[in-house]
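WARN no homologs supplied; continuing
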Amino acid sequence: ARLKAEAVAAGVPPDRLVLIRAPFEQMPAYLRLLDLVVVFRKMRFSKQGSLAAKLGELLASGVPMVINEGIGDAGALIRQERVGVVLPEVSDAAFETTLENVVQLLQDPMCRVRCRQVAERHFDLRMGVGRYLELYRRLNGLDEPRGGKDEGLSDWGGRDVGQCPVPRAAAAGP
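OK structure emitted
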């Protein structure tokens, strides 16, 4: 109720605002309904890496983003891969100067495909788990790679990584 009231007070027409609760399994379908997501964060040290999961989920759903500069390396990725627009600052002037870029992005018929491809290259769970396993092995003095890219994942959906084998030295902590 509070979010809706604040949105209406900020000028969002009530008939254009949809707020729902959905189970985790339904979120990809809802995300695919979006044309664009706008995320602005205050530039703080603690927020530098906090967009990665959200960015990966949105890109995997084919949704481009508009973000402000200074959120970790997300701006560089978005610019380089052409999957969104990065504002140099959160201001009316920045909105005005980047509006044409947003319009072009939304008119680009390959944008959603590109978003999905970027998610697969940069945010793939299996690839990430494999990289961590190799890092743990090297830290533990085991130079030879073992298994394939799916080692440690128990199902195709990638939701259960609890079975991921971690070397004893890495599991023990510092």
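The beta strands are 37-39, 65-68, 84-87.
OK
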